[in-house]
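pinned: reference chain
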Amino acid sequence: MSTELTTDSGYQSLLGRISEVYTTGQLRAHQAVNSVITETYWHIGRDIVEFEQGGKVRADYGTALLASLSRDLTLRHGRGFSRSNVVRIRQFYLSYPKGATASHQLNWSVVVELLKIEDPLERSFYEQQSIREKWTVRELQRQKKTSLFLRLAAGKDKDAILQLARHGQIIGQPSDLLRDPFVFEFLKIPEPHAVSETDLETLLCDHLQPFLLELGKGFTFVGRQYRITLNNTHYRVDLVFYHRILRCFVLIDLKLHDVEHHDIGQMNLYLGYFAAEENAEGDNPPIGIILTRNKDELLVEYATYEMNSQLFVQKYQLYLPGREELRRELELTLREAEETTRDLKKEEEP
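pinned: its structure tokens
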């Protein structure tokens, strides 16, 4: 009888439904526990700060207070109250004193990673993005290490930077997919190292999960070396994705050499083909991204003159970007915006 059940399609369907419900329940329970732990730590942090501010401990006893709490709470409750964790708990309340904030939607390990970020704008971005894209601790650590906020902020004006910091990266148009540059450090290709376009494509497909993390939310992998046939001539797009949010195909071509005008023309041909032959009802026009090690801005400007606005040429690199240089660029943009605002106010004064 048991053998008959295991081969019965109705039983297999029941088994699948139960497994799905159980897995979903486990996930919800785990999320609920994490939420309660984070909220609990916030309340503990508030108690510590209010005790300090109430004059119950002299300023020079601050360090001793945290050490004593760590020791005594560990004796009472076991793990969870190391001195470093008690310091973070106190910092958590100081960083989020208003209570019910977005940070309470995150587990404690992610909150700890956020608290390591000193700049409030940068921390706010990673907080919003962690919630929006449901990053794990490892994913958050990777995005911090690759300076995602600074790369997305590069070239933006002050208002756009502040919008990015407050709300995270909102995907509403094709240009929102771009990063300057894209970073493929997860391939662990040493510099300098000769690698062919085929090898690079293979490595990216072999590391699809971190590659999708770098591309951002909404990408679904369709295929590699996607064949296009026109008048018995075969062409192949290196990588094809579908973007669930923008509802369109995203075509990616990889170039090791400087991009030439014919590379741009070829991508434009791909876009025309996908728009006419591959798009289904409800799909938006496809997006084309040529990823290159080096980019001649003037050539790209002329080669794309009055061409498809959905075609982009972006740089990629195989190593971590220079964080300090990106930081200086961000600070310069904000400083120039502040100076412009001051000058305008002076001009308006009677």
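why pinned: Residues 119-170+320-350 form one domain. The two ends are 95 Å apart (CA to CA).
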